[in-house]
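Person: Show me a sequence?

Helper:
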Amino acid sequence: MMDFSTNALTTEEEEEMKHFFTTYDVDENGMLELDELQKMFANFNVIALKEDIKAFFERVDTDRDGTVDFDELMQYIEEIMAEKSTSDEVVDAFNLIDEDGSGEVSHE
């Protein structure tokens, strides 16, 4: 399982992702096409509209060639990890100034 507490993957996590990627790269061309991505979602029992899967695909396909290569997938994962890290930092900072743990900060 990947650790999203940092915004860098370990070598082991990157190898897990490579294995994951090649598992769904059915035609073994080094890229995921939309139909392969749809199968991946189905295998994980993710119920998503085709439009949602297509929007996800378009978000990850940064070079707009109609496929997602491993580097694009890794870039997307690293962005998610960075966003999560930033979000956690904001929560931690808020908790520092939320002295009574009420979820509110007064300006006294």
